[in-house]
Specification:
338 residues; 11 helices; alpha/beta; single chain; two-stranded antiparallel ribbon; Rossmann fold
């Protein structure tokens, strides 16, 4: 979550502020054949000795070899982490991968995605625990990053990776762990560091257990451009299994990539609403609050007239920003204001 999404009750890694002194943020499985000394394991007969292995046993051994090869190719061997569901790609051109945030869905990206698809190949990916993507158990940022990496491994080359809110935190983690997969990173309403102090985080987590629906409603109402949109957003996240939502909220409240951000080897564009980067605030100050200060190749852009869900409120402006960045990700080093 970032400052635009971290109210005292906010569960996202989005930028939002709860006052000047209380910035808020929304924030494998290795397959192997039995060892030779294992009972029932297949052993080749000594040279010169006719094989007595049945046709059935040979079929089983062949099947095991095929499964082992398939696991090695797909990456499922990596600690049993399933790749997240990627929707069918559409459009032609440089590949842009869009990752939604907590309680959101790939549908929220469609207004922006349709515009991007005129000149780009667009891939929509669901977070673990969202859409048709299974939740990770146990859950951690590291395992979620591995799951995303398995999805990106299917791409033919590095992509421009775009993440909204908590999806941006995951996208940044992927760029840190696997820079060869990413040629540019766009973080929409994302913070790379916690936006609450330790006491506030403790209070929020306690409130989450005592009044889960109340915390969600307050948070998502604050994310909307108006109360109607905020309530609609709340209804969407409320339909999800709390056992899938709470681990993401805990991650949003505690994950900190701000120090590791110095190791980001790709250009980064932060797209922020005014709630996250207010008019009149210097970019250096906003960048420090959001955890961007140490990013080597960093640009910031403000889009006005929108809530936390920029892709819903200002899809044209956001698509243009992504298009410009995709064309020259190492371009304009100065913050751009809109």
């Amino acid at each position: 979550m970032s400052r635009a999404g971290h109210r005292p009750s906010a569960p996202q890694h989005t930028p939002s502020r709860a006052g000047r002194d209380g910035r808020s943020s929304d924030s494998g499985l290795e397959s192997r054949l039995p060892a030779a000394d294992t009972p029932g394991a297949f052993r080749a007969p000594p040279r010169g000795v006719p094989s007595t292995m049945s046709h059935s046993n040979r079929s089983i051994a062949l099947l095991l070899l095929i499964v082992a090869a398939a696991l090695a190719l797909t990456g499922i061997r990596e600690f049993g982490v399933p790749a997240p569901a990627a929707h069918p790609a559409f459009g032609r051109g440089p590949t842009v991968v869009l990752l939604h945030g907590l309680g959101s869905s790939a549908q929220h990206w469609l207004p922006t995605a349709r515009l991007l698809a005129r000149r780009h190949r667009v891939v929509l990916v669901d977070l673990p625990g969202h859409g048709v993507t299974a939740m990770l158990e146990p859950f951690s940022l590291e395992r979620a990053t591995l799951a995303l990496d398995l999805a990106l491994a299917n791409e033919r080359g590095p992509v421009v990776l775009v993440g909204h809110s908590l999806g941006g935190l995951l996208a940044a983690s992927e760029a840190l762990e696997h820079p060869e997969r990413v040629r540019g990173l766009v973080l929409v309403e994302t913070a790379l560091r916690p936006q609450f102090g330790a006491e506030q985080r403790t209070a929020l987590l306690a409130a989450l257990d005592q009044d889960y629906q109340g915390v969600l409603e307050a948070a998502y109402q604050s994310f909307g451009r108006d109360s109607a949109q905020g309530y609609a957003l709340y209804q969407e996240v409320a339909r999800l299994d709390p056992a899938h939502v709470k681990p993401w909220i805990r991650l949003a409240l505690n994950a900190d990539l701000s120090e590791r951000a110095a190791d980001l080897a790709v250009p980064v564009l932060a797209v922020l609403a005014e709630r996250s980067w207010p008019q009149g605030e210097p970019w250096a100050e906003a960048a420090a609050e959001l955890g961007y200060a140490r990013v080597p190749q960093m640009r910031g852009m403000r889009i006005g007239g929108c809530g936390h869900f920029v892709m819903l409120d200002r899809p044209t402006e956001l698509a243009r920003a992504i298009e410009r960045f995709t064309a020259m990700p190492a371009g304009e080093p100065v913050a751009v204001l809109r």
